[in-house]
Amino acid sequence: MPPVRVLSDEVVNRISAGEVVERPASVVKELVENSLDAGAGDVVVELQRGGRKSITVRDDGCGMSRHDLLLSVRRHATSKIERWEDLQKLGTMGFRGEALPSIAAVSHLRITTSDGREAWKLFMDGGVLKDLQSAARTIGTTVEVNGIFYNQPPRKKFLRSENTELSWVNKFVTGCSLSRPDVGFSLYHSGKELFALPAGLPVAERMVSRFDLSPDSPRVEGRGATGGTEAYVLVFPDQRWSQARHQYILVNGRLIYSRLMRDLLKDHLGGPAGHPLLLCRLSLPNPDLDVNAHPTKRQVRFRKPGEVERALEQALLAATGSRKAEFRREVGEGKGPYPLGGSGPNIGADAIQTALELAQPEERSPAGARPAPDAADIVQIAKSYLVAEIESGVVIIDQHAAHERILFENILSHVRKSGEMGSQILLLPQVIGLQPDQLDVLRRCDVLLRKAGYQYELDGSKVVLNAVPEGVSHGPDALLEVLRTIASPVRATRPEHEQIAAATACAGAIKAGDRLSTEEARRLVEDLFETDDPFHCPHGRPTLVE
Ligand code: ADP
Ligand code: MG
Questions:
Q1: How far apart are CA 393 and CA 78, in angstroms?
Q2: What are 302's strand-pairing partners?
Q3: Which string of DSSP letters, residue by residue, matches 20-42?
Q4: CA of 34, closest atom in ligand 1
Q5: d(Cα 316, Cα 310) in Å, to the nearest integer?
Q6: Rounded CA separation 147/128 (Å)
Q7: 275/136: higher pLDDT
Q8: Coil, strand, or helix at residue 68?
Q9: Among 475, 482, 542, 532, which residue's Cα sits nearest to residue 509?
């Protein structure tokens, strides 16, 4: 074996670029967060060709001196933390000192900055410093990222269409603007203004402006609090989309993705008419939130998922409660029962019309029920493979292998650290007869199994399965496979939590022959590319071919 070597910064930056820089939206995220950390009052984001050609973020923050500018593109250079404890009470968005060097490694980077005393312009190509010149600029910073992945063709291939990349950037910038109504945000694409939101308007007005709603567009809000957790929701019940694409979930100011929260929102507000436009804000003490869980900080881990759930549920009940009260007001106070019940004799025709409109809005919202731009370019063939369009052609994805990889990582990470692996309740509980050795396993691994999302009761030598890990398609198969695997002495060398994740993924994943809806197919492809290794199933078999 060759001797052990320490990797050069250049190599490390490229590796970390794979984690931090995934696509234009992740670059925009890092740059905008830097602008906010620098105290910007106005942030302008400009893209060319969905960000594939160039991404520019301009701010009026504190800027950098020549010395800081040179340091900023070096690995683990940050002005934001010094000690490990600082991580615990983090007030700023970024903190790893990885973003700029990672972005620099895979693009042509230009930074122009001024701290009010001096102004400098720095040029880098593929992570190599090319030039540093004095410049003219008012206080603030402009970062320009050209030709993302120009030196990494395989990564470039996984960029999606310009429109799709743009829609992700748009979602992020919109989310940021809702988190920070005190800051002005604008977004331009290929020279055209998509929106420009001045600083200072209350968040509801910002939403009205961003989504071009009429100023009196109905809205309801609700608040909830449990322990240290506070939740706030603001819903525009008339503005609906077929997917939950305009639901902005902010946790301690960050736009994040949380299944737990998404499912609660869906349970309370989703319906046949689609998903309403909404803002959901959660704030909780920093120690209860792990933002260090994923390099892009998009996925967070809650230390007290139960608290989060209760606070949000309260807020949602308050919001729907106030909406019902509004219905009542509209049909005239005291004139009868809740109008949708339809039994009140005194409700006038107009009132019924209003109630129906609120419940089943016409498709006159800005995007109506238009399909997601990328939904159309994924198709299922032979009920076994998904064909998805990418930059250079198509990929064919094995739906079983892909789902296996997703489930495996999801369950493993939740079983290992006690997280919020959700359960999905079975419509009909399933009764499964067990062998004595399987029964032993069930008893012994009870805690791990429940952590993984299984819920069941024992009834003699039978188990009544009530719920299975979220995302699992074949629940009873999955549990049986877990018990079989762990009971079998052959594989007793792997830790049990890994065996549970692997067996659940293997037997519980979508199988060849399972039909997927367009939305399910799209989710699957998206989730696959969020995994650590989208190219292989947990057994090492390929998930896709190009
Ligand atoms: P981090 O944000 O994790 O500190 P980055 O690589 O994103 O790491 O940025 C490195 C450093 O560069 C920051 O700590 C900050 O001091 C400086 N910096 C980056 N962007 C800006 C900006 N827009 N305005 C002022 N300073 C910036
Ligand atoms: Mg940063």
A1: 40
A2: 289
A3: H-SSHHHHHHHHHHHHHHTT-SE
A4: 20
A5: 10
A6: 15
A7: 136
A8: helix
A9: 475
Task: Please indicate whether residue 61, judged by its CB atom, sits closer than 6 Å to ligand 1.
Answer: yes
Strand partners, 459: 462
Task: Give the per-residue pLDDT at 10.
Answer: 67
> pTM for the complete prediction?
0.61
Please determine, for residue 86, whether its predicted confidence score (pLDDT) is greater than 90.
Answer: no
Q: What gap in Å lies between CA 41 and CA 64, rounded to an integer?
A: 16
Distance of CA 183 from the midpoint of ligand 1 (Å): 18
Q: Read off the pLDDT of residues 444-474 as tens digits, 9 standing for 90 and up.
A: 999 889 988 999 998 888 999 988 998 898 9
Instruction: Return the CA Rg of the chain.
Output: 26
d(CA 82, CA 476): 50
Residue type, 504: T
Q: Count of residues for the chain?
A: 546
pLDDT of res. 498: 83
481 by Cβ neighbours in 10 Å (0-12 / 13-18 / 19+) ranks as buried
CA distances from 373 to 164, 331, 370, 464 (A): 7, 39, 8, 42
Specify whether the CB–CB gap between 24 and 53 falls below 8 A.
no
Q: Are 245 and 171 in contact (CB under 8 A)?
A: yes
- Antiparallel, parallel or unpaired: β 42-48 and 184-189: parallel
Q: How far is the CA of 467 from the centre of ligand 1 (A)?
A: 45
Answer yes or no: are the C-beta atoms of 290 and 279 closer than 8 Å: no
